[in-house]
Amino acid sequence: MAGLCEDGNEPPGSLKAKHSKFCCRYCLPLPKLTDECHRVVLLGNIDPDATKFNLLDVFKLIFMVGDVRFSEDCCVADTYIVDMANFGLGHISKTTITAVKKLEVCAMKGYSARIRGIHYVNVPAYADVVINLTRSVMKPKIAARIHVHSRGLESLHEKVSKKVLPKEYGGDAGTITELWDAWKKKLISYRGWFVDQDKMKADESKRPGKKIESGDIFGFEGSFRQLSVD
Question: Which of 63, 142, 169, 205 gives 165 a disulfide partner, CB atoms 3.0 to 4.6 angstroms apart?
């Protein structure tokens, strides 16, 4: 399964070893709902080493957590907090506009996500370009819900109650380490289901109608390296 830092020896090509890099990041749904019955989800890097960063692994983890939430969670919508404390230029160079767009399409169309807000915290100055480019590929309704908290957490507390947030953000919901350890155990308990899902594939030859190309779904192909920023 998506390897969640279990102890033990695993062959290099095993599923657990393949995804052991998930130990370097977290996708953490917080235990308490907001007053509006929204679930707050934290996203961030544990290890700042950009050589261990793979954007597709991040997306894999987000959707794995989403799969578990389908079975166990009940909320009206999601609010995301993206912590960029351990996010550097090396991570930016591995992030493509195409991948971000694909994440949005999969989340909105595949998982029917209802996003009420995306909040960036601990944002370095150079990350403004990344955030603005992310806004540019989002639907206007979602782009308008992106907030950058670059001058402390006071503005975040105006949007998200402290009772929901972990201690690292001045809240009362425990520490990120404690909460993420609990979520890793939950993901491990779904190991058998994830292994079965990895074996499933779509037979596109049986899809009725015109063949669907990736450009038809995602709209464009490209990357940060192919964009010029004034």
Answer: 169
